[in-house]
Amino acid sequence: MVRHFRLQAFSAVAGAVAVTVLAAACSSSPSTSSSGTGNGSGNGNGSGAVTAGWQGLNPGTGAPKSGGTLNMIGVSDVEFMDYDTAYYTTDSLFDRMTLRSLYNWPAVAGPANLQPAPDLATALPTVSNGGKTVQVTIRDGVMWDSTPPRAVTAEDVVRGIKRACNPSPTAFGGMADFEATIKGLTEFCTGWPKAAATSAAAQKTYLDTHNVSGITVSGNTITFQLTQPAAWLTGAMTMGPFFATPIEAESALPGTPGIYNNMLANGPYKMTAYTPKKSITLVRNPVWKASTDPIRKAYVDAVNIDETGSQTTIYQEIGTGTPSLGMTWDSRPPPSVTSKLLGLIKSGSGLANLGATYSSNPYLVFNTVSPNNGGALKQATVRQALSYAIDRAQILKTLGGAIINPPITHVLPTGIDGSQGVPADYNPYPYTPDKAKSMLSSAGFTSTSPLALKLLYRSDSQGSTKSALNVSSQLNALGSVKVTLVATNQSDFYGKYLYVTSSPSPAQQGTWDLTMAGWGPDWYGNSAVSFFNPLFTPGGFPAAGGSNFGYFSDPTVNNLVKQALAQPTEAEADGFWAKADMAVMNAAAFYPITQELALAEHAPYVHNAVYMTQYQQFDPTNVWLSTPGSS
After folding, report:
1. Is 494 found in the same domain as 371?
2. Looking at the structure, do residues 394 and 501 belong to the same domain, yes or no?
C-alpha cells in the first residue's frame, strides 16, 4: 500500500465518546475475514455507535462543480520529491495529484476502494504460463507536460522500475516486496556501478545500457516474466516504481534540485513551485485529459500546500470554514479534538471520518546491530526481557485508549491474509516486570550496571512524544534499564536516522537503540509479503532498499517467508505467514502496540471527500468546492 501510508507519522488521539468499531476486511480472498466495512453512507448507524468506514463524503447540494483552489496545511514535507521513489504516505499523496501509475486506488466509498484499479493500464493484467507471465498494456492519450507535450510510453514505466533501485540515498524503500519475483530485477539492482551513487551521468549510462531480463516491451504492452506465480503483483503495481518516469529524470540524481525544480507531470496537476519543508504549489496540468483518467475527477483548479502548520492550530481552524484551510496535508488530529470529531461522525455531518488503516502504528523497533551495551540488543533474550517489561495498555491509554487504537500483539493486523491463522488470544509477552528484571539480571544488567538505551522519537508529534515518554518511564521503572531520549523531527526521522543506505548507518553506529515507527500494507488482503520482506528479512535492510530499521535477521523467519512465497495458492500461503508471524514474535524482533484507526476532518465547503486508507486522508483529486460559508 501505500505506502502506504507506509511511514505515516502518528499522532495521539483521546476517545471520550463511546465508539463501536467494525474492522473492514480488504481482500476478496476467501481466507480473509469478512467483517463489517461501515455503513458507507456517510452517516452514523442511528444507534449512537460509530463504525470505521467512509463517513466524510459531505456530498453538498447540487452537481459537482469545477474550479477553485484547495488549500491544504500540514506539519512536514515529503521524504523525497521525485518520480518513482515514494514510500512515505505524504510522497504518495503528492504523486496521486501529479503522476500516473499502472494501477491505483479508486476514490469510492466502499470495499472497491481497497482493490487496485487500472490507471495507466487499460485493464487488469493478463496472466499466463502458470502465473509466471504477466502482461500489462498502457492506455493511449496520456501525456507529459514537456515542451512540446509527448505521450507517456511503456518504456517510461520500465524506466521507473529500473531507476527505483538506484544506489543513491534516494531510492525506493520497498524493493524487497517484489524484486526477487521479477526475473533479472535483482541482478539489475545489484549491478549498479559504485559511481552511480553520486553521479547522475553514471546512473544514466547504466539505465541506458542495461535491461532487466524479465521485462520486455512491445508497443504499449509490457511483459513481466516472474520467478514464481505472484497473485499479489497487481497490488504491488500501485507503488512508486510502477509510476511512469520521463527520460528527463536521468539528467540529475534522484530527489535533488535538478529533479524537483524541473519535474514533469502526467496527472491532473503540475508543480509550479516547491520550497522544501515550507510549501508546494500545484496548478492544473493543461495536457491532462479527463477521458484518459479513470481514477481522478480533478474538479479543483489548483492545490496550495503549506507545510509549516501545527497540529493544534490546524484543527482549531479546519472546521471554521476558512478558505485558507480545506484539508490537512499530513497532520493527524491532536487529542483535544477527538471527542468533537467523533461527535461529528455520530451526527452524520459528513465532515469527519474514522477509517481503518490495516497498519501496525506505532510499534517499537529494537536496533539489533547497536554496538551499545556490548551489543546486548543482538540477544533475543534481552529483547524478550524488554518486551515483558512494557505494559501495552499504558501506551494505548497515552494514545487515547483501545477503542481508537485497538491492541495488536503480533505482526499482521486484522484484515491481512495470514492474520487469521494466529490464535485469537495470542500474546507472547504479557506484562511481567519481575520476569523482565530476572532475565536482564541473567544478561548482566542490574540497578548498579543498567542497560543504557537511546530512544529516538519525533518531538513535533504529540503521539510520538507521549509514547516515548511512557515507554521510557516504564523501562526506567525496572531499575536495571536507563533510557535516554533522542529528539528529532518528522521530516528527518526516516530520512536522516532510519532509512539510510550509507554504511555505517546511524543504527549501526548506535545513534539509537529503540524507536517507534509505523507500517501499513503496500496493498490489501494478500499483502503479508509487504510486511515480512521489508520489515523482517535481510532483503529489507535499509541498504538493500528496505525498512528493516533494526537490521533483524532470523533463519527460521527467513525460511518461513520463503515457503510462504512458494505456495501455489494464497490460502496455502496463509498458514506459513501465520507461522512466520509467530516466529518473528518468538525472536522479539519488535514490540507491536496498536492496529490504529485514523481520524480525519475537512472543511464544510469541501465535498465528495472520500477517505483513502492508503493515505489516511481524503483524496484531493476528487473533491469539489462550494463557496466557503455557503455549505
Report:
1. yes
2. yes
Give, as one character, the DSSP assignment of residue 368.
T
User: Has residue 630 been placed in a domain?
Assistant: yes
Beta bridge partners of 364: 516, 591
Domain count, the chain: 3
**CA dist list (Å): 577 to 27, 331, 528, 567:** 16, 33, 7, 11
- Angstrom distance (rounded) from CA 339 to CA 403: 12
Q: Are residues 249 and 125 in the same domain?
A: yes
pLDDT of 631: 54
Tell me how far apart the 2 most distant CA atoms of the chain are, in Å. 72
What DSSP character marks residue 331? P
Single pTM value for the model: 0.81
Q: DSSP states of 206-247 as a string?
A: HHHH---TTEEEETTEEEEEBSS--TTHHHHTTSGGGB---G
Other C-beta atoms closer than 10 Å to the C-beta of 30 total 9
Q: Show the cell assigned to 627.
A: 463557496
- Residues 426 and 466: their CA atoms lie apart, in Å, by 27
Q: Are residues 259 and 335 in the same domain?
A: no
Tell me, yes or no, whether 113 and 218 share the same domain. yes
Using 50 as the pLDDT threshold, list the residues of the chain that sit under it.
1-48
Q: What angle do CA 467, 534, 410 make, to 5 degrees?
A: 50
Q: Are residues 123 and 144 in the same domain?
A: yes
**C-alpha cell of residue 624:** 469539489
Residue 337 is predicted with a pLDDT of 87
Sign of torsion over alpha carbons 186, 192, 197, 202: negative
Which residue range is the domain that position 410 belongs to? 360-592
